Amino acid sequence: MRVDRYRKSNTWSYKAVEHIRIADSDAPELGTPEGINAKNELEEDLLCKVVVCIVHARDDYGRVIATVKIRR
Fold first, then answer.
1. Nearest in space to 20 (alpha carbons), one of 50, 61, 70, 48
2. Which long-range contacts (CB under 8 A, 24 or more apart) does 64-71 make?
3. What band does 66 get if pLDDT is binned at 50, 70 and 90?
4. Residue 16 and residue 3: Cα distance in Å, rounded?
5. How far is the C-alpha of 13 from the C-alpha of 51, rounded, in Å?
6. Do residues 29 and 35 touch, judged by C-beta distance below 8 A?
7. Distance between CA atoms of 24 and 14, rounded to whole angstroms?
8. Each residue of 22-35: pLDDT tens digit?
């Protein structure tokens, strides 16, 4: 998942692309057919939706770990 901005504390940080690990999500590895299917389903679910990312931390690879909710 990518996001173009996120909130950390009381300030906004902006980047061209931010990679996010969805917290509490267990998904198959992307290099497998199941992983590709899971990615495609997630993209379809989130396409043209406004999402809210609640940032928890960064992992060892610098990716944001966040809870992701669809805004209604």
1. 61
2. 64/3, 64/6, 64/18, 64/19, 64/20, 64/21, 65/20, 65/21, 65/23, 66/6, 66/20, 66/21, 66/22, 66/23, 67/22, 67/23, 67/24, 68/1, 68/20, 68/22, 68/23, 70/45, 70/46
3. very high
4. 8
5. 17
6. yes
7. 25
8. 999 899 999 999 99
The pTM assigned to this predicted structure is 0.63
For 12, the token pair is: 């906004």
What is 11-64 written as a DSSP string? EEEEEEEEEEEETT-----TTSHHHHHHHHHHHHHHTT--EEEEEEEE-TTS-E
Spatial separation of the C-alpha atoms in residues 64 and 62, rounded to whole Å: 7
